[in-house]
Amino acid sequence: MSKYFYKLTSPLFAVILGLLAGAIIMLVSGYNPVEGYGAMLAGIAGDSYYTGETLRTIIPYILAGLAVAFAFRTGLFNIGVEGQLIVGWLAAVWVGVAFDLPKIIHLPLAILAGAVAGSLWAFIPGFLKAKFRVHEVIVSIMLNYTALYVTNYLIQNVISDNQDKTERIAETASLRSPFFESLTDFSRLHWGIFIAIICVFIMWFILEKTKTGFELKAVGFNQQASEYSGMSVNKNIILSMVISGAFAGLAGAMEGLGTFGYAAIKGGFTGIGFDGIAVALLGANSAIGVVLAAFLFGGLKAGAINMPLQTGIPSEIVDIVIALIIFFVASSYFIRWIVQRFKKGAK
Amino acid sequence: MKKRKFGLALSLVLAAGTLLGACGNSENDDKDSSNGKDKKDNFTVSMVTDIGGIDDKSFNQSAWEGLQAFGKDNGLEKGKDGYNYIQSKSDSEYTTNLNTLVKENYNIIYAIGYALAESVDEVATQRPNSQFAIVDSVVKQDNVASIVFKEQQGSFLVGVIAGLQTKSNKVGFIGGVDSELIKKFEVGFKAGVLSVNPDAKITAQYAGSFGDAAKGQQMANNMYSSGIDIIYQAAGGTGNGVFTSAKELKKKDPKKDIWVIGVDRDQKEEGALKVDGKDYNVTLTSMVKRVDVAVQDLAKKTKEGNFPGGETIEYGLEENGIMISESQENVSEESLKAVNEYIEKIKSGEQKTPGTEKELKELGFK
Question: Would the pTM count as exceeding 0.90?
Answer without folding.
Answer: no
